[in-house]
């Protein structure tokens, strides 16, 4: 087999389904929406509505979130059709293997590894900062040496809280999905309850005059704001990683993906509406706009509760992303593109080898490396996956060996998938040059691993459609 034939061979869907049957199907639609909301709604809901209103859109940030949701929905529907048609582990990585071939699948998988692991590492650092501030409220102070990334010049050597929270979540996931989902569902309920608390309490302090002018930056402000807040919706794609553990995946996966987006949009727009009604938008360019608004109306107690909501948001986001990254690495190991032990399932039907591996990497990143400047790399990894999934709908529809008669289908085919691809590519052009250079370096490393190891150890069964 030539190098080209190896790179372009397409995986056999039936082989994937046969191998993934080892997982226990325990997840329902509500669990999937909890996973999705856990990933999508984080600290951003308490920050972005204020900062984008102040700098880009004014009160029109409400419409920015709606426009961004519509844009995101194009990719979400493509994911929903793929998840319904191909309910296999690995999400977009496996879709790429089946539709485009092994090399494109590897590119998508390598991009998603970047997205998931870097996102968790960055959020673990944020959780550490919030938790340290929470402890200070009780007069407890962590030594500076164990409160930050390795930086002797600033007296920090390790971020212990960032490491501990990642391992606590990994331990929770290693015990099984039923118990993990109970905890995750509870944390999601806490998070949503705190968001609703702000919306309800803040509503009584809304001054309609603060919404005038509604579009101080014009219609361009809405579009500019949408480009910024689009990234607040990222994470819904992680729902598709759970496919082999979902009951009735053809129905529940599309419900989980699209339901996540709908709920997130309602929450983002509700917070934006109340926040810009409570405080003139020109005053919202602060680090914590929601807490700032509450303090202005002397609701300091509620402002303190918001910090708990922020920590709950970060916790559930890490749960979803660690879970998804472990299933992704399992799928790549299953195919032999990474060491085979990563594709093992234990007697409890869990891929704990991949879970432990990603936890070690994430905890080292969050505990020792200052990754703040690399956070935007999460976006490029996501958009690459979105692009392939969007355009992949066209060859998917032409595959008569893949049945999806009763499953979800993207409307307005093939126009909507093409629009989704164009929008993803447009958003990629807005990323900074430094992000592109760093991502190129990441993909060069991935290419070396693929050419020297993955391509020669691949055990992907060729699709004989």
From TrEMBL:
Taxonomic source organism: Agrilactobacillus composti DSM 18527 = JCM 14202
A GO molecular-function annotation: amino acid transmembrane transporter activity
Keywords: Membrane, Transmembrane, Transmembrane helix, Transport
Domain of life: Bacteria
InterPro entries: AA/rel_permease1
GO cellular component: membrane
Subcellular location: Membrane
Keyword Transmembrane found: yes
Keyword Transmembrane: yes
Name this protein carries in UniProt: Amino acid permease
Residue spans crossing the bilayer: 32-54, 60-82, 103-135, 155-174, 186-205, 217-236, 257-281, 301-324, 350-371, 377-396, 408-429, 435-453
Topology in membrane: Multi-pass membrane protein
Lineage, highest ranks first: Bacteria, Bacillati, Bacillota, Bacilli, Lactobacillales
């Amino acid at each position: 087999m030539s190098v080209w034939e190896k790179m372009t061979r397409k995986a056999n869907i039936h082989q994937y389904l046969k191998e993934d049957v080892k997982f226990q199907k325990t997840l329902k639609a509500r669990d999937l929406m909890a996973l999705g909301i856990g990933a999508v709604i984080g600290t951003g809901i308490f920050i972005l509505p204020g900062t984008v209103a102040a700098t880009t859109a004014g009160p029109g940030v409400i419409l920015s979130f709606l426009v961004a949701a519509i844009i995101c929905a194009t990719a979400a529907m493509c994911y929903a059709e793929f998840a319904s048609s191909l309910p296999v582990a690995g999400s977009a990585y496996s879709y790429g293997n089946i539709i485009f071939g092994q090399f494109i699948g590897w590119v998508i998988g390598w991009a998603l590894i970047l997205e998931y692991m870097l996102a968790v590492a960055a959020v673990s650092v944020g959780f550490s900062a919030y938790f340290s501030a929470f402890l200070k409220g009780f007069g407890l102070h962590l030594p500076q040496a164990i409160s930050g990334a390795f930086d002797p010049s600033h007296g920090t050597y390790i971020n212990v809280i960032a490491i501990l929270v990642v391992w606590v979540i990994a331990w929770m996931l290693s015990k099984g999905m039923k118990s993990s989902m109970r905890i995750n569902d509870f944390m999601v309920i806490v998070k949503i309850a705190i968001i609703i608390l702000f919306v309800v309490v803040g509503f009584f302090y809304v001054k309609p005059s603060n919404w005038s002018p509604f579009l101080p930056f014009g219609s361009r402000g809405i579009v500019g704001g949408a480009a910024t807040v689009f990234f607040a919706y990222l994470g819904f794609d992680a729902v598709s990683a759970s496919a082999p553990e979902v009951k009735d995946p053809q129905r529940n996966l599309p419900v989980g993906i699209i339901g996540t987006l709908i709920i997130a949009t309602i929450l983002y727009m509700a917070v934006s509406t109340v926040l810009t009604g409570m405080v003139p938008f020109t005053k919202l360019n602060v680090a914590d706009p929601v807490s700032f608004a509450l303090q202005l109306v002397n609701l300091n107690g509620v402002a303190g509760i918001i910090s708990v909501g922020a920590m709950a948001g970060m916790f559930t986001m890490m749960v979803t992303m660690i879970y998804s990254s472990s299933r992704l690495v399992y799928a790549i190991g299953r195919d032999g593109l990474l060491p085979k032990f990563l594709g093992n399932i234990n007697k409890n039907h869990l891929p704990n080898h991949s879970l432990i591996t990603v936890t070690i990497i994430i905890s080292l990143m969050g505990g020792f490396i200052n990754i703040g400047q690399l956070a935007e790399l999460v976006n490029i990894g996501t958009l690459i996956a979105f692009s392939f999934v969007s355009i992949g709908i066209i060859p998917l529809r032409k595959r008569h060996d893949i049945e999806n008669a009763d499953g979800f289908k993207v409307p307005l085919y093939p126009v909507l998938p093409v629009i989704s691809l164009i929008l993803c590519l447009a958003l990629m052009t807005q990323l900074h040059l430094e992000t592109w250079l760093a991502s190129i370096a990441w993909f060069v490393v991935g290419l070396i691993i693929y050419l020297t190891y993955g391509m020669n150890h691949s055990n992907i069964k060729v699709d004989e459609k």
